[in-house]
């Protein structure tokens, strides 16, 4: 998994819950303290264990944690991959071009079969499909919401098909509010 997710997960947990919670999550996950570099890839199972560790160390649920974290991660992704985002794009334009680098951070370690594709339904609606062995649909929801909040216009994200319910991909309908 892309190192930017690890680096910003640590920043998110420390800002929301404190440094002690991050240390507790690392211990719960069985991971020795380390520095996560945004340009390095790390094992998928390490990310899964860290998220489980944060959930165990807090009073939140995994879906709520991933959605909130995704919303906070979106501006960081846009800054990191700004070369892949045209200046004249709004949030829906950016989501329509979901094949760009901004969304590849949601792919699994090997990326085999992972994909984010999108289609513009009309001026106010984009349908985004996400498939990955990681099944991080809640994180994807948060990132989509965060892009709307950061890059405008504000959007409403609804999920149709979901990998957690046996579908081969998640489908998100993103509408301008």
Order of strands across the biggest sheet? Answer: 1-2-4-3
The biggest beta sheet is recorded as: 4 strands, antiparallel
* CATH fold topology of the largest domain: H-NOX domain
**Sheet/helix structural class:** alpha+beta
Give the number of helices.
7
What is the class of the largest domain in the CATH system? Alpha Beta
Q: What is the architecture of the largest domain at the second tier of CATH?
A: Alpha-Beta Complex
Helix content: 40-55%
For CATH, the homologous superfamily of the largest domain is named as H-NOX domain
Low-confidence stretches: none
Shape: globular
Beta-strand portion reads: 15-25%
User: Can you give the mean pLDDT?
Assistant: 90
Number of DSSP strands? 4
Strand-and-helix sequence, N→C?
Answer: HHHHHHEEHEE
Q: Work out the radius of gyration.
A: 16 Å
Count of folded domains = 2
Ends distance: 32 Å
